[in-house]
Amino acid sequence: MRKILIIGAGKSSSYLIKYLIDKSASENLEMTIGDVNLDNARALIGSNSQVKVIHLDIFNAESRSTAIKNTDIVVSMLPARFHIEAAKDCIAYKKHMVTASYVSDEMQALDEEATSNGLVFMNEIGVDPGIDHMSAMKVIDSIRDKGGKMILFESFTGGLVAPESDTNLWNYKFTWNPRNVVVAGQGGAAKFLQENQFKYIPYHRLFRRTEFLEVEGYGRFEAYANRDSLKYQHVYGLDQIKTLYRGTMRRVGFSRAWNVFVQLGMTDDSYTIDDSANMSYRDFVNAFLPYSPTDSVELKFRHALKIDQDDIVWDKFLELDIFNPTKMVALNKATPAQILQKILMDSWTLSDNDKDMIVMYHKFGYELNGQKHQIDSTMVALGEDQTYTAMSKTVGLPVAIATLAILNKKITTPGVQIPISKEVYTPILQELKSNGITFNEKEVPYLGYNPLNV
Amino acid sequence: MRKILIIGAGKSSSYLIKYLIDKSASENLEMTIGDVNLDNARALIGSNSQVKVIHLDIFNAESRSTAIKNTDIVVSMLPARFHIEAAKDCIAYKKHMVTASYVSDEMQALDEEATSNGLVFMNEIGVDPGIDHMSAMKVIDSIRDKGGKMILFESFTGGLVAPESDTNLWNYKFTWNPRNVVVAGQGGAAKFLQENQFKYIPYHRLFRRTEFLEVEGYGRFEAYANRDSLKYQHVYGLDQIKTLYRGTMRRVGFSRAWNVFVQLGMTDDSYTIDDSANMSYRDFVNAFLPYSPTDSVELKFRHALKIDQDDIVWDKFLELDIFNPTKMVALNKATPAQILQKILMDSWTLSDNDKDMIVMYHKFGYELNGQKHQIDSTMVALGEDQTYTAMSKTVGLPVAIATLAILNKKITTPGVQIPISKEVYTPILQELKSNGITFNEKEVPYLGYNPLNV
Q1: Can you give the pLDDT at residue B454?
Q2: Mutation for A interface: B283, B291, B303, most A CBs within 10 A
């Protein structure tokens, strides 16, 4: 029997646990799930009696080290900042480790010890980061293998609602942490490369510099730039690339409307409003508009943002009921972002029958024999219900598959790493495909910048 | 003989020193000027042989304490962060102290010791802060004395060029630290009170929410909100006020054009541009615009900001020569704000014969016997040349007058303070008046918000 310890039985663990339970007989797996909330874990294993559920508080050194000592590999599905406690024990007791989170500096610092102990510390193996790394590197490597030279790479991911559940004017519902959506793009100018030129977009312009993307069978999307498109330039081997852009996908029209919140200052998370507890939604909106004894908040809003009365953007704000004078904010000393989040959660929370959707779009531009070429690669994953969501599938499946591949010694290169090598992405992408997560890759005319070399 | 030690003989010390030299015979003053640069000090005293000039490095404890021991009062004209060294010695050797700077937390912490030793530590007694405090409190106190109730206070100050030197399309030149102008308004939303409602303006909207102000004989100005209009609410005794707004004055049209820099992200001081050393002005502008193989930077700029070709705003940017492809930034790893500052200094640096101007505008709204009233108070100070500037006059004269008033025991209340009491502002405003700094106060119809009580 090979022993797997999964720490954290939250939202994104459902598919991970299901996949490993399904494989436990054929693969001889003995699973333990540790969480501070035993009910979470029990709900996810259902009637399966062979999975052990234990109380595990990551900050309790004794219960943590006992559990880690008794396993072969540790999967941490905790929030990213908690991994490091488990990671240090994994070094101490010589266990492999898998997480879906960004490599923190603390995690990176364990690289030498992990490597010298022959331990695989696989990170960023969820959806974004994760599936994006693997599906991109597969195409990039294949272009290089045939002698091509990468000149453009653009990559976009979006967590959205499935078309059948897409029932509001924003074409958007919260399928993940709402707070991240409200503060998305803050903290500095977005930076990227276009035809060898560094480009910068300040936060307050981010949602007005979008581009469109068509996904076969799913219609049109738009994307706004991520803060740092250059993060993986070096590790992807793209130091010489001319265009490098990473972005977030939404349905067309979302960004133009979202920009209104940004312009007014409603997404600001840097200060608190003293009297927020006693504000109505209408008062909140009015705090960002000039005083008038007579003009309505509605007209001041439309005037400030130059919104015509027959503009569909206007209906989006009415739909959110932000001008309601009786709905109360009822949050004590909250930031504008916290208040906006609350207002949006009224409208954008998934209903019981709603399904989510993950969309990914890569563009690869390259030169081969003096010609410019482009490959577009797209993926759509749909959720089944509110437990088996597209998000938990695309996060949990690659984690589960990587865990098995490490146990089965298909992935052996030790060290703190992300899934960008053939050794890692080949078996995982293959297994993802048999689980319905497939990329549609096709050659298209080169549509990058400056195709005619003007 | 009464001894005065002035530490710092920089730009703003010219009038201060001149005023005290002129009074030295009649007032029996013995002046010492300490600076790390003796030439600075000597230039300001001219042929006067009775003023001592000494080398004084504020961080050299021995020379500092020797100089402070041997004086009756210390005037620190150093940058604000350096006052505290002198202030601690003033406590130790029981000397009064005067500065034109904001009261720092460290300075405030000396209040108890200053008070118990009978020492006057007068701060914020320059122009803004300083003359604004005094001229405002005089009117506020007179309104209270006649039984009026303050309902509105708005206060605006601007450092500009004198009309005769106002020779560019922006009607602006740098008369003080250019960096402060470039980053003005950054760091958080502007907050103020309008008719009992808190209002917030995010930085990227600040320069589009201006209001106009007419100053008799000087025409029209505009003002944008300061970050914290509520800073002095309590100390001015305005806890119950309905409208409280502080702002910065510019000539009309400046803010609309400046907003273009804000929108593009050119005022951002939070990140550096790697290749700034080798950028032309044109490259810098282009970094904030989308890539195009064919479209000009000019057209992309006008399109992004929706600037018509016959809009005067466009000529303002041409005047700055920001599209020049041969003028180089030549700053190593500079922030956008640093680069913009360099570009602006090409155009906005004062010429030898240029004169500056300080403008101040207060509005006081009050209720008396059930009626609403308003008093507007304005002040304009003009510079004489590049040494005797309006800035150094409005900063240095109140400092000098306060210093004498403390020596002459007209100001006696001890402690760390700002000039808001009658004891302080009455003699100083009177003496400022005889030196040409006068406020034009007049009753006007109440033009505050909601005059008709709708």
Answers
A1: 61
A2: B291
Question: Is B448 a residue whose pLDDT tops 80?
Answer: no
Beta strands in A236-286 (DSSP E): 243-251
Adjacent-strand bridge partners of A243: A152
B399-413: pLDDT as tens digits: 999 999 999 999 999
Instruction: Give the integer Cα–Cα distance in Å for B324 and B138.
Output: 51
Contacts of B101 (CB under 8 A, 6+ apart): B80, B83, B123, B124, B126
Residue whose C-alpha is closest to residue B10's, from B30, B34, B46: B34
Measured CA to CA in angstroms, residue B187 lies from A67, A271, B201, B255 at distances of 47, 10, 12, 18
User: Is-contact B231 B133, C-beta < 8 A?
Assistant: no
Whole-number Å distance between alpha carbons of A30 and A50: 8
Strand bridging mode B73-76 / B2-7 = parallel
DSSP H or E segment with residue B7: strand B2-7
Residues from chain B that touch A195, judged by Cβ atoms under 8 A, are 291, 293
ipTM associated with this complex? 0.86
Cross-chain residue pair B454–A294, CB shorter than 8 Å: yes
Query: Is residue B47 scored above 90 in pLDDT?
Result: no
Half-sphere exposure (Cβ direction) of B431: Cα atoms closer than 13 Å: 20
Residue B436: burial class (beta carbons within 10 Å; 0-12, 13-18, 19+): exposed
Contact call for A265 and B336, based on CB within 8 A:
no
Q: Where are the beta strands (DSSP E) in B39-85?
A: 52-55, 73-76
**Chain pair A-B, CB pairs under 8 angstroms:** 105
Q: What is the largest CA-CA distance in chain B?
A: 76
Averaged pLDDT of chain B = 95
Q: Which has the closest alpha carbon to B238: B296, B163, B153, B365?
A: B153
Residue B66 amino acid letter: T
**What is the per-residue pLDDT across B360-373, written as a single tens digit (0 to 9) for each?**
999 999 999 999 99
3-state secondary structure of A290: coil
Nearest to B360 by CA among B438, B255, B245, B430: B438
- The partner residues of A220 in beta bridges, in order of sequence, read A214
